[in-house]
Amino acid sequence: MVKYIIRRFLEMILTLFLIATATFFLLEAVPGDPLTQRADKLQPQSRERLYERYGLDKPVLERYLLTMEGLARGDFGESFVYAGQTVGGLIQSRLPVSARLGLQQMILGVGVGLLLGILAAMKRGTLIDYLVVGLSVLLISIPHLIFGLMLQKIFAGTLRILPTIGWPSGDELWFGGWKYTILPTLTGCFSYIAIYARLLKTSMLDVVNQDYVLTAESKGLSRGAVIRRHILRNSFIPVMTQLPMSVAMCITGSFFIESIFSIPGIGQYYVTAVNNQDLSIVMGETVLLSLLYIVVLFITDILYAVVDPRISMPGAGK
Amino acid sequence: MEAGSKNTGSAGGAEKKLLSVQNLRVSYHTYAGEVQSVRGVSFDLEEGSALAIVGESGCGKSVTARSIMGLIKPPAGEIKPGSRIFYRGEDIVQYDRKKLEQYRGGECAIVFQDALAALNPTMRVGKQIMENLIAHRHMGKQEALREAVEMLRRVGIPEPEKRVRQYPHQFSGGMRQRVMIAIAFACDPKLLICDEPTTALDVTIQGQILDIIKDLQKKHRTSVILITHDLGVVANIAREIAVMYAGMIVERGSSEDIFYRPRHPYTWALIRSVPRLDDENKAELESIPGTPPDLIDPPKGCPFCTRCRYCMDICREEMPENADFGAGHTASCWLHHPLAPKVEMPDYEKEDRQ
Amino acid sequence: MQAEKFIIRGYSGEEANRITRPTISYWKDAWRRLKRNPVAMASLAVLVLMAVMVVFGPSFRGMDYVTMNFSTKNKVPDSTFWFGTDNMGRDLFSRIWVGARASILIALVATALKMVVGTVYGAVMAHFGGWVDDLMMRIIEVINSVPSLLVTILIMMVLGNNMFALLVALSITAWCNTARQTRGMIKQLRESEYVYAAEVLGAGPMRVIFKHYVPNMISILILDASTAIPGFIFSEAGLSFLGIGLKAPEISLGVLISMGQQTMDFYPYQLIFPCAVLCVIVMAFNLLGDGLRNALDPRLRQ
After folding, report:
1. Domain-embedded: residue C195
2. Average pLDDT in chain C
3. Smallest CA–CA separation between C180 and chain A, in Å?
């Protein structure tokens, strides 16, 4: 187990290194110079100094090594566009906002989705089943973007009962200021509801037809015990594989939701940085978001082995 | 006339029996239509006795077994009205959920064919046995654990203290089937159904498993219904045999009757298709030509007629009645009608033993 | 009872082997099941309608949807402008179908790219095995360790806001899934006993490929495509909305939605119509995909 984790950890670092390298050279290929706009208005000497300050006077390879060294130290770089802004500082101020939004969506969406999935599987072939299936197709067919805009239009624009934009800050950063978070959270949670309801339902129907459920029933266990101990646990195994995808969805979803509702999170900032060609920020955030994603992949693998005893981890020693 | 309709007696007559199945009819609703898997099966089972149900795959053996366990699930599966399964005089078809839960596992247990599929892959083996004990014998966890270890020991699993904590995939095929048997016997059931218990196993293991079943049956005075397609397995355990074909019992009798005095052409063919080491004639091993009829649209006559070398015109038109040969030996075949020509039974079994 | 009915006639081989249930080929059966699914058939009808509209819709009203005309600015829907006009006086009805044409075209081409690259890559992996397989799998793993939209955005930054860039950016990560599935399917089939049996019985490689690999692959690819197409339509709309995909003089559903958002407080129809068309198209693809999954999944066959 320990050996496996160490091996996976080393692999993670290698993967991250590859991602950082690929990102660096991709951004190197972006046409134009990130400092052009700022440098245009400056005197030649100041311009040189500016380029020097960001290390852009050095050859590509040297800059690559410097960037990598910085990443290794945990220094993700500094904005080309806004002087003094670093990715590190950005994380401190913006990550909690995105994290809260993400957690709220996921808890609500996954929770409701799983409940609906169980309900649909238990009441298979009834009106409830059809309603759940219909709802999930509907929800999965409407992008975040449209949900966000529509909710904003209806609840903030027409009914004027909720704020259009903004996000709680200061003391309310993690808790409180709920009225600002309702619409963004709803926008995000719908796709989780759709995905998890469908997934759990399919998985449960699959498990229900397994012989071991028949064995459990032939033991005379109560219906509740059969569902809890035999059906649900086994049904959750395929559901777990969706965890990384859900986090990816959360990250990309945040680009849209934070843009629509002007939420000062990392998603909105990423989009702004891309549009401003603020390459160092894009670089830093790409690596950071990939790191987050890789860690989730890693956790999923471990959880998977915990839930399903058939999966033996190499080096677990049997 | 339904095959075996003479058994449609009152529940009163069935009271001395452990189990009395009367005119059981089960259908499965599929895309293609209603498959009549079991079409009027009747038989009785005395306490402590062993009955084997033999037949090709798809003949309704397993469905019969599941019906007795109360495991036919609507909406796909349906036990047709008029079917009765009396267990100690009570009709389990009419049981509500609560009573069914007490009956299953407590009174009646089942061993499935494929133990790997029949054991929950994510639950420790010990817990799967304990579940049973806690539900029916109201044991506490510690007590149930001790009993589970004891059960594993009794079915011949070495190091049971260590094994209870393992998962099914860590066991070999034969060991897994032993676990299944331990689960089935945990609550000392009166009736044990073995649905092809050895089919998925190596021949060398098969004997061991059958011995365990036989041994436990004797100790616990359990009645056993053994379901198999392998006549070789049957001879060892069952005193009585019912031969099923296309959802019906076509012949029924003691194992001597079936092996040495079979009356139905299907049984003849079945016996000839079993390889025998002691076969002095070195007769060719026979296979039964063709396939069983499709039970979505079962034939109105004898279901075996399309594959029977003694088929007559009447066979295609009408279902034969049950001919009684005494001592509980019956067969439903037109050959035993007074008008039918006398057909010599294949002579391969006459010479030896008796 | 007549005595003549009791004459032994025996059986005929043909009769014994008769199978009353007609055997239907996999594809016929799949089509039969799909036809019986009213939701899937309705979706198919909607998609056909959409295809017709996308081709003929823009010229339907015979209006100029490119040049600005401020005399007809922001008109609400009426009998002349069925979906109203945008803030530059252009007929929204025509523009939406042009936009949908672009969106669907992007989705179809990206799906085709993904399929071709994915199957070839997967087949190469499965064919060579060994270290080639390992290395190629590692590459997929690295690509899959980044949320795909990030890669798409990076590619868009490099290649600029145009149609070609968008196609490359969308398909650059999407093929990984196809490749994995292809590899898995080929490996599984190669080890399966029935393909082995076919080979032993002397079936040539071509026959094995066409009889066993292709049908299995096709159903995987159909299902893959049915989830990929709506996904690409989503991505295009999203990227264009964020200003990272196509940009204003070009017309796509994403561009229209992004323009609609700017005026949604006053002229909500400018946002609602493109959104509705997008949702209808995506939903039809999703429902058809569900139907196909049910029709093609052999485990569900009965």
Report:
1. yes
2. 79
3. 16
